[in-house]
Amino acid sequence: MEIKDIKKSVSNIFVRKGTIKEGSIEVGGEVEAAVDAKLRQRAKVHHTATHLLQAVLKKVVGQETSQAGSLVAFDRLRFDFNFHRPLLDNELMEIEELINSWIKDSTLLQTKVMHLTDAKKAGAIAMFEEKYGEQVPGVSMELCGGTHVSSTSEIRGLKIISEQGIASGIRRIEAVADSILRLWYYLRNLDTMLHSKALLQSLLGQLLVAFPGQHGQYSKHSHSTEYESNATCGKRLSSIGPDNTKVNWQAYRQLLLTNPGLGEYISGAILFEKTLYQSTTNGKKFVNCLREQNIVPGIKVNKGLDGLASRSAEYYKQGARFAKWHTVVSIPCGPSALAVKEAAWGLARYAGIS
Questions:
Q1: How many whole angstroms separate alpha carbon 239 and alpha carbon 42?
Q2: Which DSSP category does 83 fall into?
Q3: Contacts by 324-332 with C-beta closer than 8 Å and gap 24+?
Q4: Highest averaged pLDDT of the listed ranges 63-67, 117-121, 221-225
Q5: Residue 184 CB: number of other CB atoms within 10 A?
Q6: Which domains does the chain have, with CATH numbers?
Q7: pLDDT of 211-222, one tens digit each?
């Protein structure tokens, strides 16, 4: 059984929600819990970084600043806090630099279980909306029952990727750390890379389709690009350090598709069938991320013509608005007349069905 979410009930019982992958479960049955060590480590990194962020905000912006919400995930952190104006660029830079200096100091974290009253007397800061019993775990003078790194050096580095207002008097900072930070820096260069057609091909995949002017709205940027396959994602990851895992493929794709300004350079993206159904860690479908940037989602059809009509209907339902097809005939030294004829026949059948 794969656990997707854990919530604490009003009676202090941890309720786990998940999907049964194989076998069955029954009331009274014994189960063995196993934690994904890599995901847990990345969650630790972003969790501890959240505490550093809150401490630095109080130092740079003011002690009156307090947490108003947060999200800690394996691939990022989100921190909401009360403040009356947007943070200035120099303030964000100071916050980032101070956090990274603390990270480089390799400060050891100490966890102590104390009585709640004693912890507050000692100056410990309580996290937003946390509920504490009489005995509370404290981490570096903040009350927290979550999982943390043993030293700030494990965070490796932190980068603030956005700061914005989400409500009256409430600001939000999003940041990334550790191996996700290296991914972010790699993909952040898209703004420069996408100006070059050659670099666009090397980063996003083979350039496939040129839309003529009569295609109206689809011709805005004149190009569509094929989406990165698992194999290509693996090559990108290997070149910058993070492990070649499904989790990192997902993180890579999410960072790629949510990169600001992507819609300025491409008009369409051809997705693999599996990607068409995937979503970000926030639950937003990748196709919707593309649409928000006026990028038309497409589908790569590579299962042949059998059942194509029903598959095309499902692809359209999921958000795909065009498809890429290629002939099954590959002639290395130039196509013969027979190959051209067979390719044209296959394309005609494909067009008729889809």
A1: 20
A2: -
A3: 324/208, 324/209, 324/226, 324/270, 324/298, 324/299, 324/300, 325/301, 325/350, 325/354
A4: 63-67
A5: 19
A6: 2-36 (no CATH), 38-178 (3.30.980.10), 189-353 (3.20.20.70)
A7: 333 333 333 444
First-to-final CA distance of the chain? 38
Of all helices (H) and strands (E), which one includes residue 242? none
From edge to edge, which strands make up the β-sheet containing 111-115? Answer: 111-115, 135-139, 142-143, 125-126
Q: What residue has token string 């974290």?
A: 109
Half-sphere exposure of 290 (CA within 13 A, CB side): 26
Which pLDDT band holds residue 346 (cuts at 50, 70, 90)? low
pTM higher than the cut 0.70: no
What pLDDT is recorded for position 21?
A: 82
3-state percent helix, strand, coil for the chain, nearest multiple of 5: 40, 25, 35
Mean pLDDT of the chain: 75
- 157 pLDDT above the threshold of 70: yes
Q: For 247-261, how does the pLDDT look when each residue is reduced to its tens digit (9 = 90+)?
A: 777 777 787 787 777
Between CA 94 and CA 60 the distance in angstroms is: 8
Q: Tell me, what amino acid is at 71?
A: L
The CA distances from residue 198 to 151, 201, 205, in Å, are 42, 5, 10
DSSP 41-81: HHHHHHHHHHHHHHHHHHHHT-TT--EEEEEE-SS-EEEEE
In b/e form, how buried is each residue of 29-65, taking b as 16+ CB within 10 angstroms? eeeeeeeeeeeebbbbbbbbbbbbbbbbbeebbeeeb
